[in-house]
User: Fold this.
Amino acid sequence: MHILDIDVPSGTLDGWRDIFVFPFEPLYFTPDDFALTESLPVSPRTRSTDLNFADAYWTYHVPAIATHMALVDPETLRTHPECARIMGVQKALGRNQLYAVDFVVQVLGSIPEPRDVFETDDGPCFALRHDVWHSLSKEDQNHWLKAFIEQEREKCLSGSLKEEAWEQIEQKCSPWVRELAGTFATQSGPNCFATTLSALARDRQTFEATKDLWLHPEPFFQQLQDWQYQPEAFDAVNLPDHSALVFQDGSGKAQHACLHLTGGLVLNKDAQGWFAPRQIRTLDSLLQSWLHPDWTLQVYQHV
Assistant:
C-alpha cells in the first residue's frame, strides 16, 4: 500500500493494526467531572510508558486539569449510564480515537457500532474501540489507517530529487540517507532528532543504532559537536545544503530538528509516532508549520 506516496510493507501494516487501538481505553476526568465516574476504576493520573499507547490516544494532548483517569473495556463503557457524557468530556479534553461520523462513513460506508456514536458541539462523533477495530476486515483497517495518516499531511517528495542530487547528498551527509527518506517506522519512538542525526551518520553501525531511537536534545547536540557541526544564524536566502536545522522555542529550548538536503527540500519527521513518516518536504511548508511566533531557527553546518 502507498501512503503519502510512500510504499508501506505489508508487515508494517500488520504491526500498525495491532497497536492502533488497545483493549482498555483511557478515560480522563477533571475534578468537575467526578460525578460521571461512578463504578469506574478511577485513580490519580499516571503517565503511560508505552509510546504506542500514548500515540493511540494522544495522551500527551490531554491537559493537566484532567487529574484522574480510568482504563475501561469497551462493553463496560457502552453500558455505563453516563457513557455519552463521559465521551463528550474526552472529546473536549482532546483525547484521540474519536472521529467525526462523516469520516467513518467516508472510510467504511457505514457506522460499524451505533452504540459508539455520541453527540458533541461539533456534531456526532464515533469512538473507535478495540473490539470494533478487530471486527473489521483487513482491507477496511488498511483504508482507515491510510485515511488517518493522510489527514492534513503532505505527500513525500523523494521522487523530486534527481540522481545527481542524491549522490551529492549521500556524499556530504550519510551514505544511507536515501534509505531513510520516504519510510515509516514500525512502532512509535523514532523522533526528529534521531532522524536528523542518523541521516548524518558516517558508518552503518551508527546509522542503524540511531534511526529508531527516541533521542533527547542533549545527545543530539553533543553528537553534532563531535562531528564538527557548528551553529550559525538562519538565512533562508543562503541556506547551506546538507545542514541541520533546529527550531527553538521562546526560551531557547530545542523543539524540532530536520535536515536541509538541497534546493529547499528537507528530510523531516514531525513526531515520534509511527504515523509520522521520515519524509522529504519543502522548507517553506516546514517553516509554516513549525516556525511559530517568538521561535527561532538555528543552522548547524559542517566545518
Remarks:
- The CA atoms of residues 229 and 302 lie 4 Å apart.
- The two ends are 41 Å apart (CA to CA).
- The mean pLDDT is 96.
- The longest strand covers residues 254-262.
